[in-house]
Write a structure and sequence with these properties.
The protein is 56% helix and 17% strand. It is of the alpha+beta class and 293 residues long.
Amino acid sequence: MKRGRGDWIMANRYRETEYLNLGFWEKTAEKLGDKALSLGGRILFALICFLIGAQIIKFILRIVRRGMEKAKADVGVTQFVNSFLKASLYVVLVMMIAASFGVDAASIVAILGSAGVAIGLAIQGSLSNLAGGVLILLLKPFKVGDYIVDGSGREGTVVEIQIFYTRLATVDNREIILPNGSLANNSIINVTARRVRMVDIPVAISYHSDIKKAKDALIEMMKADEKVLKDRDILVFVDELGESSINLKVRCWFKNEDFWQGKWRITENCKYALDAAGIEIPFNQLDVHMRQD
């Protein structure tokens, strides 16, 4: 069967259309491949820049920290500056990498400014903590190594003062993280701010005991303790006349580092000193009277 001229023309047009479609997809694939290669190269370049920048930031932080240590800056100030500088340098690094992708620096600043307002409203508490950290470093109500008690009764040794939080270590090795804002705006007891601390220990003796003899025994016991500061008051006085005992108060002073061991030791030695002097330490007694009908 002979094919007409029209069939031949249609066949040629189909082949031309197929060739054009094939060329289009080849060109599209080639363009996508070039773009993917270019994008992959830029991402790899950005990653390398970030890694190099991170090492440079570590080097800068190391130099700043050593300089502050040589200047004998407070440990808390050094930690705070280190945290703040680290965050700032990483922001600058990210902006520089974004600029390498063709993002206008002015646009980045404008976006950060707009975002900063919204973020600032959303994180008012964090900004308060930042301001609190600055106040703590300026006013120095405490420093790293001090033992503090906050307004809520949480206590421990200050381990680190960061941008937003202060870390405490308790005597049983737990860690307490307190926001700087609450520390700056509430009362704080700095237990170790002074070089020495006073110990007050209550001791009860019976009404039948010789008060003077008891006082002399307790004073001699404290004078014999080598850690008790002899240039401070060593006192024993009658604090209260109780219902069933005479309540004395034993008072002496220790250096901060000797306080707890000294307090426990003096408390124990009070018992030994009174026993040796024949002084009775009363204890609660209950007399029960039985009536027989």
